[in-house]
Amino acid sequence: MKLSTRARRLKPSATLTITAKAKELKSQGVDVIGFGAGEPDFDSPDHVKEYAIKAIRDGLTKYTAVGGIDELKDSIIGRLREDHGLVYERSEIIVSIGAKHSLYNLTQVLVDSRDEVIVPAPYWVSYPEQITLAEGTPIILETSEENGFKIDPVELKKHITPSTKALILNYPSNPTGATYNEQELRAIVQVAMDAGIVIISDEIYEKILYNGLKHTPVAALGEDIKKATILVNGVSKTYSMTGWRIGYAAGDKEVISAMSKLQGQSTSNPTSISQWAAVAAFSGPHDEIVRRTGEFEERKNYIVQRLNTIPGISCFSPQGAFYVFPNVSGYYGKEYDGKMIKDSLDFTEYILVEAKVAVVPGVAFGSDDHVRISYATSMEDIVKGMDRVEEALSRFD
Ligand SMILES: *Cc1c(COP(=O)(O)O)cnc(C)c1O
User: Fold this and answer.
1) Which atom of ligand 1 is nearest to the CA of 99?
2) How far is the CA of 338 from the centre of ligand 1 (A)?
């Protein structure tokens, strides 16, 4: 059968591909250490599970309102108000099947063919693909390691044209772990506001921040900025609830209503049981979340230190999320078994085959000098994995 142009253009998610490859090796009995996963290794909280089981017992297993139950919208509204002083109404919130789905719906209702959307690189793999699916054009805005992978407002301005529809922000960032303080954020947002473009702010890692840093949502920078911003977030990363598939968008009523219309003609409501579980997550105790972030920070400190002692690797110390994004280009040009490491894909393959460690090539995130290592795994595996990587790379000495 002949597939649509749209389907033929679509790239598979690189992060999911490497996870599958590592799983395959594992199933063959190879002891692979997986640093590929984009999800916390912690279990979903017990009170969340109990609430979901109760929802099943109470028969809350039917269709719900397309954009989510009022109880969940209210718990999202409560969180945003309590954490950030942000005030939203129910009509300004839509619950989707994960933040990825919120972003997909958002792109579909905002972007026309030939519209440009600015995507700072390194970027989360799905942004460019989702923009292309909406027939828009992703405009890649490079950031550099020297500048801490942060957007330069002057560079941002240069990338804006009359066709620019939106700017995507993602902080703390997947894959770099970079984030912004309020002053830096204001400078970037001002450029977008002057150009009259939409700000799509993916803040899914807002609670996973280090060095005592505080997260400032774009929407909290002022009432006019809030009006121009669609905030995207969810339960996956904060509450270790990736499989439940609950995310949301908050912002302009008309945009939210259009997203709801699209959702109504495609997926309908997110799973009713998951929605009740998310109510428990947002409204429940948060001390465990703080403890887990502390654990992520310990792992981050260890892994950054280990990577930076390996010759030919330099690793930026992330301020949030659970990834490191080391520069491995010092190994490009090295040869083994008659093969040469030329790029991040070759490097990833070398590490997988020779060290039995799975990482994700940076090229998937728009940066071929790097690889992404997720430390959402046990300290024991991190130690073992780093030992193996170090050993495999020392063969080039
Ligand atoms: C994980 C992730 C998402 C999507 O999460 P969902 O599980 O779909 O809620 C969105 N953006 C970034 C940057 C992510 O890393």
Assistant:
1) 9
2) 39
* Ligand 1 atom with least separation from CA of 234: 9
Token readout for 251 is 């912002």
Report how far ligand 1's centroid is from the alpha carbon of 100 (Å).
5
123 CA to centre of ligand 1 in angstroms:
12
Residue whose structure tokens are 């080039």: 396
The Cα 172–Cα 165 span in angstroms is 23
The minimum-distance atom of ligand 1 relative to the CA of 102 is 8
Nearest CA to ligand 1 atom 15: 174
Both tokens assigned to 203 = 């803040």
User: Could you give the angle at the alpha carbon of 323 between the alpha carbons of 248 and 21, nearest 5°?
Assistant: 90
Q: Residue 99 Cα, ligand 1 centroid: separation in angstroms? A: 5
HSE-up (13 A, CA, CB side) for residue 181? 6
Per-residue pLDDT of the chain (397 residues; tens, 9 = 90+): 999 998 888 877 666 666 777 788 889 999 999 998 889 999 999 999 999 999 999 999 999 999 999 999 999 999 999 999 999 999 999 999 999 999 999 999 999 999 999 999 999 999 999 999 999 999 999 999 999 999 999 999 999 999 999 999 999 999 999 999 999 999 999 999 999 999 999 999 999 999 999 999 999 999 999 999 999 999 999 999 999 999 999 999 999 999 999 999 999 999 999 999 999 999 999 999 999 999 999 999 999 999 999 999 999 999 999 999 999 999 999 999 899 999 999 999 899 989 999 999 999 999 999 999 999 999 999 999 999 999 999 999 7
Taking the centre of ligand 1 as the mean of its atom positions, its distance from the CA of residue 96, in whole angstroms, is 12
Domains in the chain: ranges and CATH: 5-43+288-394 (3.90.1150.10), 63-283 (3.40.640.10)
Ligand 1 cavity residues, CB under 6 Å: 38, 98-100, 124, 170, 174, 202, 204, 234, 236-237, 242, 247
β-strands 360-361, 371-374 pairing: antiparallel
